[in-house]
Amino acid sequence: MNKRAKISVHGIVQGVGFRPFIYRLANARQLAGWVCNTSGSVEIEAEGDERAISDFLTAIRTQAPPRARIDDIRAVFVPVEEHAGFTIRESLSRENTYQLISPDIATCDDCQREIISLTDRRSGYPFTNCTNCGPRFTIIKDIPYDRVKTTMSAFDMCSSCQREYDDPLNRRFHAQPNACSDCGPALWVTDSNGTGIECDDPLEKSSELLDEGKILAVKGLGGFHLVCDATNKKAVALLRERKHRRSKPLAVMIGTLEKIRGHCHVSDAEAALLASAAAPIVLLRWRIDSSDVTNLVAPKQKYLGVMLPYTPLHHILLRAVNKPLVMTSGNLSGEPLVKDNEEAVARLAGIADAFVLHNRGIHVRCDDSVCLVDDGRTRVVRRARGYAPDPITLPFDSRSVIACGSELKNTVCLTTGRHAFLSHHIGNMGSEEALSHLIDTINHYKNLFRIDPQLVACDMHPEYVASKYAHRMAADRGLDCVEVQHHHAHVVSAMIDNNLEGTVIGVAFDGTGYGSDGAIWGGEFLVADWARSERVGHLEYVPLPGGEAAIRRPYRMALSYLFSLLGEDVDLERLPFADIDTVEREVIARQVKRMINSPLTSSAGRLFDAVAAIAGVRNTVDYDGQAAIELEAVAADKRAVSGVYPFSVDGAKEPSIVRLRGMLEAILHDVRDGVPAATISVRFHRTMAAIIASVCGAIAARRNLDRVVLTGGVMQNRLLLHLATDALEQEGLRVFSHKDVPANDGGISLGQAVVAHLASGE
Q1: Counting CB atoms within 10 angstroms of each CB, which of 15, 68, 107, 696 has the fewest?
Q2: Predicted TM-score of the model (pTM)
Q3: Under a CB-based contact definition with an 8 Å cutoff, are residues 406 and 748 in contact?
Q4: Domains and CATH numbers, the chain
């Protein structure tokens, strides 16, 4: 008996070969009808045998293309119309509806084989793609996803590409970026002034320049990379000097997984992540003794950030060079990623010796994602290419909220219904260009996902650039702007990441967060749910002498802790910073005593800084978190060191205050006795884990709670996370930490959006 079904499919079902997939399924089952993209879904009519339609619906779910994600299928039966054959109809735009957009997808195996084949018509073509791979999010201007609404609209397909595009049995059927060397984007090389360099093969020429130790600015998928030979110490040093990035680790691209294993330890889970469609930078344990990647790439680090080639251009270049390449963001430190040719020549001319340019437009600048694998579990550190704009699923229907994020590692989050669109990494809000990037990102997500905001959210810090913009935007639109406390947002982002409802104990350890009392928080114990939080414990306050100066110079934090907790007469002899200028030391002592330009802080990040300085690991920093990162990196094997330093907790009333005098005295004793920094580091980490377990155990008993979430940038420290998790579980508590949402400030905007929605009475 024949039936006709009207079917709607929601999810990531555009730009992933979904319509040709439906076409093939229908024809294989002799079904008539049609399939069509709309702004909100893929619509299907299927007419034929009732059992064939049932099988068709099952196959849509079970055999969907690998990059598709089906969230919902709805089918209703309607009267038969006697369709003739099955067709793919033109896309339809519909008001107030949206469709999920696929992230950019790493080059598939089939396309890789074509570009290295000597006989394929796409041999060596750096923009090869198909429905299973290639640019998506970074080239899309609007929905529904059709070529005319992407940056590929500038290129008319040749007859060969058009035949592929029109053939339902071809894997390039309706592949919107489809192109070849006869009709598609082209590549060229220029000198540092943007003047073209004559050459037969731009990537061969690029390889020659890299062999000569030159620095290239290479236009990629979501913006430019600055590239040099990672084994050339002089080239890497020059890149650091020109980019003003003295010691922050640089990412490396290596041609194959087999070659990566020659430089790093790679587990099965890490190998799968490297080779995934997202192809992020993965932080791998570095084989420093056997790797020829210069240690200038990641000074004083145990981990190396590595990625595989994820575009044809990268695959061809890595094959030509046959060396690991530094592949770092194309920008000056603190500025947004460069995405356009003219912009690159103007802003990167002082860094790059040559430019590798192309004429495929980038609509959305999008940096590389960064991940790590911990106990077989992937944790996203920076969420960008390959992950954005996939939404985070909310456990409730949200109003349309725009949350503007934090000052560092900024992202924005826009919510509608059950979708929270946590944006790609925007970066630090220290420039006008960064603010423009934030505004562009908000506007693009609003447009793509048809979001008409009803509420704005921001951090409660009055001087954050993103918060000031949020208030202006809300005022311009006549909307409420909800200020969300920084660490509450951290805790809620972790709750959503772990699908937790109800009340939890939140441990939020980071560097800086504005507290409700006007102090700088960062070593916080909260009892919180999605809408409310209560501060029930914290590390004791000490002054932050000189404000930002103390963040850049950890020895100032060390002196603050010593002067505050042990007194001005503390003996500084034989300490690693004892030779600090006497005048500066006296100034710091006065600042601490009289609270001059010295706001109070409970920051765990600043405590890590202080201990790093006292232990002789790092006195000044060049990038956020450097002292703490290097303190973790020097740590000995945790199994080889036992014991914790003394501490106490004032717990008679809430908030409980963790007292650190005993710990500081014991660390000083170890330093003066010549105990290695590697041992001090492990003992300090064990102590911090013991503090977390002690305070959380007491809170759990008082409040009858058993779930703890660990969040904040400090919780990206693998050693601390492991030790704290073990200690909490020994207390009988259930522990949750981040996975898909960054633990650092890159996840703050998600928490802001949820808190604002719930706290505003909905």
Answers
A1: 68
A2: 0.94
A3: yes
A4: 2-88 (3.30.70.100), 109-166 (no CATH), 187-358 (3.90.870.40), 391-498+747-759 (3.30.420.360), 506-738 (3.30.420.40)
